């Protein structure tokens, strides 16, 4: 407190501070505006600093995967596959998809918070390539998604998960999850710019993600479902991704599956990335 | 003298706006604002909450598209040339426009890098600003742990990482204690001395009086009066005589004398020893005071002054509310 009072006193009364103020104002020369890469990296470093200062935001990528994997393996393993160990081989790829899909919504929440504080306005008055503000943040989110994936795989290995696709297969599968999640995030940034509060955003994402993740092939084989539901499950983007991830982790992946994931990702990005940028630029 | 030269050299305008309108739903938040703000000056938007100050600033700062009207910032069109405008302006919003989870130095470095500085340059620029703003001890503290005054200063520092040609300040001192407020004023004056044009909004008449070369009084989305602080005071007109009596029983006699000598309505204070009256002519005031002495009415204190900006403001907004009321009745 005393420190604050001293510094407060110093402005305006101390002429050397006054001199420094004028000097600082005089030396604020404008450099060339940064290129898209430089501004994207600046935003990415902001996101990294936020992780450093608010480490509790890493809960979603560390605790969620652990809880989800343990919960569903032991809850459904006996009932669905007869043994938890067998079920884990089937479940882990799907539960990885489900977990990462669910944590993508935090991208939208962070953006929503920025808007409600004034920093969003400051970014928008800077002479930068505006998408870099979002891409920088999304790149760091991809790091977070990778962490969640690695934690889940490591825990799975401890519980008896044995991927037949080997390290390469697993890495390739995680790559697909990251591409998909990056694309899915644009949906939440779009909603993050539309809705008024964090609460309504969480509600919307819950309403979208719950049916998408549960009514999919994450937990059960679609063949066990009524035919009218199979159609939905098989065209569900989460199923398309889960099938591909399962395939590559167990060494049976096909290029068709990869193409499916890429097409779904491209569609989501093509619709929601421009929409996000339009809303970002024209936010009231 | 230096300031005078500055205005002469830059006789073109920093902001030029005609008929700016912004409608939110049914409400016309900004309803036909015209502006002509000289380079190198401070222009103050004065008005109560909800008058349209912030909306106008957000339109001029390229953050909000106008529904009607045109504006040019340093000659650049607001709509077609917004990128060029963003290279010359900076905005300090009403709420801290910084990342409160980051430290002071991290915030300034982020802005510096987004302005185009390299990492090293960004760090030294950030430190230079923190020192100049008396925040070097708080450089490595998260901004959410700053006091209100420190927060305002780091916010303004972030706005001048590159010294802007035009700075928008939305209520820069709202909620600050008097000392922090004076510090912010010093910073604004220093910026203006270096040639920056400042457009600020305020609810405080004293702030407009202290800082602004010209003031626009904004009410219900319209500028209802515009001019220097002196012009605004003069436009409301007459001065006011305040008299404080020693004995309450003299109040009625004093009222009669003032009414006779000043030929104006006299208001009695609630404490029954004070009186106020409109007074145009100091000679007649002297006569009234002489009459007091003659009739042995003891005066403990008196003052004759031009109206304060507060009185100007209340007169103007009161009048405009009345006018609006009248026109609403007409349309009914």
UniProtKB/TrEMBL annotation, chain A:
<feature type="transmembrane region" description="Helical">
    <location>
        <begin position="87"/>
        <end position="107"/>
    </location>
</feature>
<feature type="transmembrane region" description="Helical">
    <location>
        <begin position="128"/>
        <end position="161"/>
    </location>
</feature>
<feature type="transmembrane region" description="Helical">
    <location>
        <begin position="201"/>
        <end position="220"/>
    </location>
</feature>
<dbReference type="InterPro" id="IPR013525">
    <property type="entry name" value="ABC2_TM"/>
</dbReference>
<feature type="domain" description="ABC transmembrane type-2">
    <location>
        <begin position="56"/>
        <end position="283"/>
    </location>
</feature>
<dbReference type="Pfam" id="PF01061">
    <property type="entry name" value="ABC2_membrane"/>
</dbReference>
<keyword id="KW-0472">Membrane</keyword>
<protein>
    <recommendedName>
        <fullName>Transport permease protein</fullName>
    </recommendedName>
</protein>
<keyword id="KW-1133">Transmembrane helix</keyword>
<feature type="transmembrane region" description="Helical">
    <location>
        <begin position="258"/>
        <end position="280"/>
    </location>
</feature>
<comment type="similarity">
    <text>Belongs to the ABC-2 integral membrane protein family.</text>
</comment>
<dbReference type="InterPro" id="IPR051784">
    <property type="entry name" value="Nod_factor_ABC_transporter"/>
</dbReference>
<keyword id="KW-0813">Transport</keyword>
<dbReference type="InterPro" id="IPR047817">
    <property type="entry name" value="ABC2_TM_bact-type"/>
</dbReference>
<keyword id="KW-1003">Cell membrane</keyword>
<feature type="transmembrane region" description="Helical">
    <location>
        <begin position="167"/>
        <end position="189"/>
    </location>
</feature>
<keyword id="KW-0812">Transmembrane</keyword>
<dbReference type="InterPro" id="IPR000412">
    <property type="entry name" value="ABC_2_transport"/>
</dbReference>
<feature type="transmembrane region" description="Helical">
    <location>
        <begin position="58"/>
        <end position="81"/>
    </location>
</feature>
From TrEMBL, chain B:
<keyword id="KW-1278">Translocase</keyword>
<dbReference type="InterPro" id="IPR027417">
    <property type="entry name" value="P-loop_NTPase"/>
</dbReference>
<dbReference type="InterPro" id="IPR050763">
    <property type="entry name" value="ABC_transporter_ATP-binding"/>
</dbReference>
<dbReference type="InterPro" id="IPR025302">
    <property type="entry name" value="DrrA1/2-like_C"/>
</dbReference>
<keyword id="KW-0813">Transport</keyword>
<dbReference type="InterPro" id="IPR005894">
    <property type="entry name" value="DrrA"/>
</dbReference>
<feature type="domain" description="ABC transporter">
    <location>
        <begin position="15"/>
        <end position="245"/>
    </location>
</feature>
<dbReference type="Pfam" id="PF00005">
    <property type="entry name" value="ABC_tran"/>
</dbReference>
<dbReference type="InterPro" id="IPR003593">
    <property type="entry name" value="AAA+_ATPase"/>
</dbReference>
<keyword id="KW-0472">Membrane</keyword>
<protein>
    <submittedName>
        <fullName>ATP-binding cassette domain-containing protein</fullName>
    </submittedName>
</protein>
<comment type="similarity">
    <text>Belongs to the ABC transporter superfamily. Drug exporter-1 (DrugE1) (TC 3.A.1.105) family.</text>
</comment>
<keyword id="KW-0547">Nucleotide-binding</keyword>
<keyword id="KW-0067">ATP-binding</keyword>
<dbReference type="GO" id="GO:0005524">
    <property type="term" value="F:ATP binding"/>
</dbReference>
<dbReference type="InterPro" id="IPR017871">
    <property type="entry name" value="ABC_transporter-like_CS"/>
</dbReference>
<dbReference type="InterPro" id="IPR003439">
    <property type="entry name" value="ABC_transporter-like_ATP-bd"/>
</dbReference>
<keyword id="KW-1003">Cell membrane</keyword>
<dbReference type="Pfam" id="PF13732">
    <property type="entry name" value="DrrA1-3_C"/>
</dbReference>
């Amino acid at each position: 407190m005393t420190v604050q009072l001293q510094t407060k006193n110093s402005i305006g009364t101390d002429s050397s501070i006054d001199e420094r103020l004028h000097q600082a104002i005089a030396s604020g020369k404008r450099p060339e505006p940064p290129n898209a890469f430089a501004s994207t990296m600046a935003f990415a470093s902001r996101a990294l600093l936020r992780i450093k200062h608010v480490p509790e935001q890493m809960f979603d990528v560390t605790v969620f995967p652990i809880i989800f994997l343990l919960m569903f393996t032991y809850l459904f393993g006996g009932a669905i596959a007869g043994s938890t160990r067998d079920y884990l081989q089937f479940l882990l790829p799907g539960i990885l998809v489900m977990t990462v899909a669910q944590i993508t919504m935090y991208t939208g929440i962070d953006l929503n918070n920025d808007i409600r504080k004034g920093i969003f306005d400051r970014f928008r008055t800077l002479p930068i390539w505006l998408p870099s503000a979002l891409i920088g943040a999304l790149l760091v989110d991809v790091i977070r998604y990778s962490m969640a994936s690695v934690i889940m795989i490591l825990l799975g290995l401890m519980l008896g998960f044995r991927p037949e696709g080997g390290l390469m297969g697993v890495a390739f599968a995680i790559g697909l999850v990251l591409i998909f999640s990056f694309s899915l995030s644009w949906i939440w940034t779009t909603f993050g710019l539309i809705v008024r509060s964090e609460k309504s955003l969480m509600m919307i994402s819950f309403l979208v993600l719950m049916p998408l993740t549960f009514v999919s092939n994450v937990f059960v084989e679609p063949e066990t479902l009524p035919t009218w539901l199979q159609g939905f499950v098989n065209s569900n983007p989460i199923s398309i991704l889960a099938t591909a991830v399962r395939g590559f982790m167990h060494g049976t992946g096909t290029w068709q599956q990869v193409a499916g994931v890429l097409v779904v990702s491209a569609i989501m990005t093509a619709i929601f990335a421009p929409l996000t940028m339009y809303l970002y630029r024209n936010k009231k | 003298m230096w300031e005078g030269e500055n205005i002469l050299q830059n006789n073109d305008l920093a902001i030029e706006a005609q008929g700016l309108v912004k409608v939110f739903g049914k409400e016309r938040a900004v309803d036909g604002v015209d502006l002509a703000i000289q380079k190198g000056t401070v222009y103050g938007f004065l008005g109560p909450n909800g008058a349209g100050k912030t909306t106008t600033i957000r339109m001029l700062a390229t953050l909000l598209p106008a529904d009607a009207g045109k504006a040019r910032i340093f000659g650049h069109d607001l709509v077609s040339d917004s990128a060029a405008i963003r290279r010359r302006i900076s905005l300090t919003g009403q709420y801290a426009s910084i990342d409160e989870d980051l430290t002071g130095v991290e915030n300034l470095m982020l802005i510096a890098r987004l302005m185009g500085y390299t990492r090293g340059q960004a760090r030294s620029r950030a430190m230079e600003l923190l020192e100049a703003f008396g925040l070097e001890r708080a450089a490595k503290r998260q901004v959410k742990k700053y006091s209100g005054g420190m927060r305002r200063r780091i916010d303004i520092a972030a706005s001048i990482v590159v010294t802007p040609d035009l700075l928008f300040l939305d209520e820069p001192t709202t909620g600050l204690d008097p000392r922090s407020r004076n510090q912010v004023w010093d910073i604004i004056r220093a910026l203006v001395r270096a040639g920056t044009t400042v457009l600020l909004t305020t609810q405080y008449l004293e702030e407009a009086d202290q800082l602004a070369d010209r003031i626009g009084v904004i009410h219900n989305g319209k500028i209802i009066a515009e001019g220097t602080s002196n012009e605004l005071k003069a436009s409301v007109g007459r001065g006011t005589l305040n008299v404080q009596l020693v004995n309450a029983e003299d109040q009625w006699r004093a009222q009669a004398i003032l009414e006779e000598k000043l030929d104006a309505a006299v208001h009695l204070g609630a404490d029954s020893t004070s009186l106020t009256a409109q007074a145009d002519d100091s000679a007649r005031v002297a006569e009234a005071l002489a009459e007091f002495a003659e009739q042995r009415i003891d005066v403990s204190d008196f003052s004759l002054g031009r109206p304060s900006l507060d009185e100007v403001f209340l007169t103007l907004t009161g009048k405009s509310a009345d006018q609006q009321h009248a026109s609403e009745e007409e349309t009914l």
